[in-house]
């Protein structure tokens, strides 16, 4: 027989991880509710050209990582590799510009990138994503950072550190990029092949190179904060002032540029202690020209994305225990076919009353059924035998006290509800 396996870079989220996912998604919902964000979901499939145009032709996502295919209609489609371009497409297509601004949006869901699988990074991975559309005020940049900061604090991360930079705008960025190219071109013979390619296709990416030879050259490389136009310089100065006003410590890191073409002005990353070299848990920035690039009217925006699988690994590493899954607190066991029918009816009634209850199928012995109750840490086991059915009663066993109580079948829901509350 053929033995099927997971596709490379994909993973199954099994039972041990599910409490973490439940905990994380609940904290995301709490945090977005606190800040007044609304959920928006986009399709997994988009036109491939959306990401080529929005993310940029010279980026790793477009050149190396996107899953692109031609469908039966001959259209070039892509599995969604990132959220921002997809959400901006939805914003333009659905006429969301008519809504009051700024528009605060969030989403979660799977993204797909054909990259080398490693711990916390899969070819299908899930992200939490925030977008604020329609406001240039750097106070919004601070708000977006605060959403991430508050979420990570509530999850149990510690030693949070904020790193910020400005990546300029179409007015000042081109001249800076040329200055950067001129600087590194003088050392072309010392650059590794990958960085030579970056210098030709996407020069800003050379700033986050991990190559030792390039890192040595970065010490004296020109910094974009020294080449900002008046508007970008003012925006960056206000961002720092607002962060200081709310007591949020930060470090200006001129090497943060983010890997996508659409970023302008503010870019940032958040790191946490206790996670070793994989300590970056969030990255984002401003994309004031993206909506116009995708066919909308000029509209500013800012957001961030953060991988949920990384959260799970980090929380395990930090020893953070999520609340256990809320398994049923009662089981219904039976002895005999007549009792089985009564037990099935009773379970339905308990569920109607929103009382978690588990029925054990298969006509197992009472001992086996009670083992199931112990396995899920149930509080009570309701036992129905044929004599009890004839008498219209059930026996309820308190599994922690090993005590039993006889209760009328009709009164079992009210009895359990009172005891469990």
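-> sequence recovered:
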């Amino acid at each position: 027989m053929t033995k099927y396996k997971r596709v490379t870079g994909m993973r199954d989220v099994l039972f041990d991880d599910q409490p973490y996912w439940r905990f994380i998604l609940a904290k995301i919902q709490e945090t977005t509710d606190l800040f007044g964000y609304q959920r928006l979901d986009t399709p997994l499939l988009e036109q491939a050209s959306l990401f080529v145009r929005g993310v940029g032709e010279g980026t790793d996502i477009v050149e190396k990582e996107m899953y692109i295919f031609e469908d039966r209609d001959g259209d070039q489609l892509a599995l969604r590799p990132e959220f921002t371009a997809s959400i901006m497409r939805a914003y333009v297509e659905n006429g969301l510009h008519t809504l009051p601004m700024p528009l605060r949006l969030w989403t979660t869901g799977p993204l797909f990138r054909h990259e080398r699988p490693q711990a916390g990074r899969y070819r299908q991975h899930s992200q939490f994503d925030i977008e604020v559309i329609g406001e240039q005020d750097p106070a919004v940049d601070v708000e977006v950072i605060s959403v991430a900061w508050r979420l990570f604090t509530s999850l149990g991360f510690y030693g949070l550190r904020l790193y910020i930079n400005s990546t300029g705008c179409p007015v000042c960025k081109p001249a800076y990029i040329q200055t950067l190219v001129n600087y590194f071109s003088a050392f072309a013979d010392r650059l590794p092949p990958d960085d030579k390619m970056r210098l030709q296709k996407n020069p800003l990416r050379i700033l986050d190179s991990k190559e030792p030879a390039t890192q040595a050259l970065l010490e004296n490389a020109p910094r974009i904060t020294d080449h900002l136009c008046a508007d970008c310089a003012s925006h960056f100065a206000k961002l720092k002032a607002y962060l200081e006003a709310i007591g949020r410590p930060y470090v200006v890191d001129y090497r943060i540029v983010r890997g996508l073409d659409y970023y302008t002005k503010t870019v940032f990353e958040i790191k946490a202690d206790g996670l070793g070299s994989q300590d970056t848990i969030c990255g984002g920035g401003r994309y004031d020209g993206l909506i116009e690039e995708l066919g909308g009217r000029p509209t500013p925006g800012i957001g961030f994305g953060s991988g949920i699988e990384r959260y799970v690994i980090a929380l395990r590493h930090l020893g953070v225990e999520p609340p256990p899954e809320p398994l049923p607190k009662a089981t219904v066991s039976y002895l005999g076919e007549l009792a089985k029918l009564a037990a099935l009816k009773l379970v339905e009634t308990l569920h109607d009353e929103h009382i978690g209850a588990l029925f054990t199928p298969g006509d197992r012995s009472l001992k086996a059924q009670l083992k199931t109750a112990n396995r899920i840490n149930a509080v009570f086991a309701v036992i129905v035998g044929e004599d009890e059915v004839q008498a219209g009663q059930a026996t309820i066993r308190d599994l922690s006290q090993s005590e039993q109580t006889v209760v009328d079948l009709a009164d079992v829901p009210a009895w359990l509800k009172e005891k469990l509350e």
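The chain has two domains: 18-172+228-318, 330-420.
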